Amino acid sequence: MDRIVLIGLNHKTAPIDIREKFAAVCADGVVQLQQLAQFQPLKEVFQVSTCNRMEVLFTTPTLDQGMGVVVGFLGEIYGQTGAALKPYLYTYIDQEAVKHLFRVTCSLDSMVVGEPQILGQIKQAYRQSVEARTSGVILNRLLHKAFSVAKQVRTQTRIGRSAVSISYAAVELAKKIFNELAGKVVLLIGAGEMAELAAEHLLNNSVDRIIVANRTLERAMALAKRFRGTSVPLEEVAEELSRADIIISSTGSPDPILSADEVKRRMRSRRNRPLFFIDIALPRDIDPEVNRIENVYLYNIDDLQGIVDLNRADRLREAGRAEHIITAEALKFESWLRTLEVVPTIVALREKAEQIRQGELKKTFGHLDPFPEDLAKSLQVVTQSIVNKVLHDPILFLKRTSSKARKEFYLDTARRMFNLDADQSEAQGEEDVSLDSREAT
Q1: What is the SS3 assignment for 130-169?
Q2: S-S: 318 plus which of 159, 275, 382, 424, CB 3.0-4.6 Å?
Q3: Helix (H, G, I), strand (E, B) or coil at 13
Q4: Same domain for 185 and 156?
Q5: Is 372 in the same domain as 396?
Q6: Residue 51 catalytic?
Q7: Structural domain total, the chain
Q8: Residues 328-356: pLDDT tens digits?
């Protein structure tokens, strides 16, 4: 029986320079898959490479040889021997490999637990393995089961429903204040990474327009173009307060960008429509006194961090529920995998019965020439029905024995009983005869 093995490294086991090397070399996963598939002990191969992990999942009939080949291959990518890479690698075999794949797909092994990107990355990697024709019966079933488990975890737990990044928490907070963000205007002050992430989340929530203000106008224009918005000079930020509903500020300014007086003056022209500030800059961009103005809501990075910490704890609790789902589904997959061991015997049994059926029909047809066509069709149907009914109980028994401790004994007995290994039986018979003769002398 082929073994399932997963060998890899991730953000927990390998420093960033090693992960960067693999991410760069393995950008075209099809190439590595085709190379790996050429090694004799590997039967099926799947590979996933992201900025935080590089993993090879494979099946092999010879465990040590297969593992050695993959570690050596990864060593070549790393530019050193497999032994030099080993301290950074982890290895999972059979059910542990299945459970690890499920955990990765469900984002329980990600740097941010519950993030959704890894599922898409694994689906893309699977498409590459299909394109390269390196996945087969076992890995096809396993990957599809992994996708199913990920969906089950998403629908049956709250692991992906709580914000665990500052920018995402800011957007979730805005949704609570405005109920919905459709039609709202957003002003981004600064064009840093957190502002970009917040803008992405806001667009996903159907905001109407994004205005970008930055000290460097070219940067503001580039970001505005990316988010289909407009750009303004940093000096005109106060003027935009009459139009914006949500302001996210993240500059590197040593002094406040907006004072309480400036905001208060603009609230009159806004007719007291709510104004929501998210100040994720250090030092702070928005005067804290702004929070005292009616219908103005100001949250700083500490406020958001508190939300993130609570939500991260919530996700970890939900991860425990996800682990139960993964364990149960891994056991189901293992049960299916065991049935594969009885498949060759079942196939051989059906083939032998079909050979006998066809042989007997040929003899019957030979007695009458020409044989009536309608009678021939009827005999085909009735003999096929008889064979199916005779084989039903033996096949059902073999399937049920796949999970039993004496599985090998039952399979061997079935093959001997129905003489499915004719050459082996004849050789065994000759051996038995020679033993009898030796004992007689």
Answers
A1: HHHCCCCHHHHHHHHHHHHHHHHHHHHCCCCCCCCCHHHH
A2: 159
A3: coil
A4: no
A5: yes
A6: yes
A7: 3
A8: 999 999 888 877 777 777 888 888 899 99
Q: How far is CA 135 from CA 31, 33, 215, in A?
A: 14, 10, 52
Query: Is 409 found in the same domain as 350?
Result: yes
Distance of CA 119 to the CA centre of its chain: 4
**Alpha-carbon separation of residue 212 from 229, 277, 372 (angstroms):** 7, 15, 86
The answer to whether residue 329 sits within a structural domain is: no
User: pLDDT grade, residue 13 (50/70/90)?
Assistant: very high
Residue from 51, 328, 331, 433 carrying the catalytic annotation: 51
* pLDDT, position 29: 67
| DSSP character string of 411-425 | HHHHHHHTT--HHHH
Q: Quick check: pTM over 0.85?
A: no
Instruction: Read off the pLDDT of each residue in 72-97 and give the average, rounded to a whole number.
Output: 88
Domain that holds residue 130: 3-161
Q: What is the pLDDT of residue 389?
A: 92
Contact 207, 186 (CB under 8 A): yes
DSSP string, 239-254: HHTTT-SEEEE----S
* Residue reference for tokens 């508190």: 306
Residues 123 and 42 in one domain: yes
